[in-house]
Automatic annotation (TrEMBL):
<dbReference type="Pfam" id="PF03473">
    <property type="entry name" value="MOSC"/>
</dbReference>
<dbReference type="InterPro" id="IPR011037">
    <property type="entry name" value="Pyrv_Knase-like_insert_dom_sf"/>
</dbReference>
<protein>
    <submittedName>
        <fullName>Molybdenum cofactor sulfurase</fullName>
    </submittedName>
</protein>
<dbReference type="Pfam" id="PF03476">
    <property type="entry name" value="MOSC_N"/>
</dbReference>
<dbReference type="GO" id="GO:0030170">
    <property type="term" value="F:pyridoxal phosphate binding"/>
</dbReference>
<dbReference type="GO" id="GO:0003824">
    <property type="term" value="F:catalytic activity"/>
</dbReference>
<feature type="domain" description="MOSC">
    <location>
        <begin position="116"/>
        <end position="270"/>
    </location>
</feature>
<dbReference type="InterPro" id="IPR005303">
    <property type="entry name" value="MOCOS_middle"/>
</dbReference>
<dbReference type="InterPro" id="IPR005302">
    <property type="entry name" value="MoCF_Sase_C"/>
</dbReference>
<dbReference type="GO" id="GO:0030151">
    <property type="term" value="F:molybdenum ion binding"/>
</dbReference>
């Protein structure tokens, strides 16, 4: 097995950036989900509420954070002042975040048709993953909950096979917004991985990822009119474990070391979960 793709998402819920290689630290991939859009009260906003976020492209630059959207004038966001802060929430987490300058927030609000704030996870921000799954004091940024999302090509192939069997089209891996994609022949083999090693770095697969309406959205346009993977996941990937309800695709992972990984790196299984993950039985046709 080898690493086939690497991605970061500098702005939570905006378009991803494909990388040929990536450093790994305690937070995951540097630059991943270090910015986020909130409402005026500081509650995070994603494609679940604003599908147009899928249309925003991010270009990190040496002295700015550039946002692009087709038909709009680019927004060049200068580094925020550390003292300009607000408390924001990501699910149940409260974070003190740095806030972008007023003009950038005004332009972004015009783009999205509602009042929003652009905030940054800077050196003063603090947040940790759920200790029940990831262990004590594992730091995260503005991700939904964990440092890294791992998916496999074999599982996407199996999901698309079910979609095709029901005349429902096919979807790409971008629908699932992974950080590390692993090329595998076998589908769902990741359910049995407790830990993997890439380039000498251990990654603990701590919790399967339950999926939501974002997987139904085209990741370039935000449209929900195209092929929809939710029915197939409902047929073959419904969790039977109440701790993680709903359809599953991919695993949340926590890195246990620092280093650098590259597309093509070998992936080794260093600890297994023989029982896999409990799934609901598929109803007979």
């Amino acid at each position: 097995m080898r690493v086939s793709d690497l991605f970061i998402y500098p702005l939570k819920s905006a378009r991803g950036i494909a990388l040929p290689a990536a450093d790994i630290d305690a937070y995951g991939l540097p630059g991943d989900r270090r910015a986020m859009i909130t409402d005026a009260q500081g509650h995070f906003i994603t494609q679940r509420e604003l599908p147009d976020l899928a249309r925003i492209e991010v270009r990190p630059e040496a002295t700015a954070f550039r946002l692009l959207m087709h038909g709009k004038t680019d927004i060049s966001v200068t580094p925020p002042q550390p003292e300009n802060r607000m408390d924001v929430t990501v699910w149940k987490s409260a974070v003190s975040a740095a806030v972008a300058d007023p003009e950038s927030n005004r332009q972004l609000s015009e783009w999205l048709g509602r009042e929003v704030r652009l905030v940054f996870f800077d050196g003063q921000a603090r947040r940790t993953a759920n200790a029940e799954w990831a262990g004590e004091a594992t730091p995260v940024t503005f991700t939904d909950g964990y440092q890294i999302l791992v998916t496999t090509t074999g599982s996407l192939k199996a999901l698309n096979a079910d979609l095709a069997a029901h005349g429902e089209g096919s979807v790409g891996m971008e629908r699932f917004r992974p950080n590390i994609v692993i090329d595998t022949d076998e589908a769902w083999t990741e359910d049995r991985w407790a830990a993997i090693e890439i380039a000498g770095i251990r990654f603990d697969l701590v919790k399967p990822c339950s999926r939501c309406i974002m997987t139904t959205q085209d990741q370039l346009t935000g449209s929900r009119e195209g092929p929809n993977p939710m029915p197939a996941m409902g047929r073959i990937r419904m969790s039977a474990d109440r701790r993680v309800p709903g359809p599953l695709f991919g695993w949340n992972a926590t890195p246990r070391g620092n280093g650098r990984i590259t597309i093509g790196d070998t992936v080794n299984i260093v600890e297994e979960r023989p029982e896999g993950w409990a799934l609901k039985r598929r109803a007979a046709a």
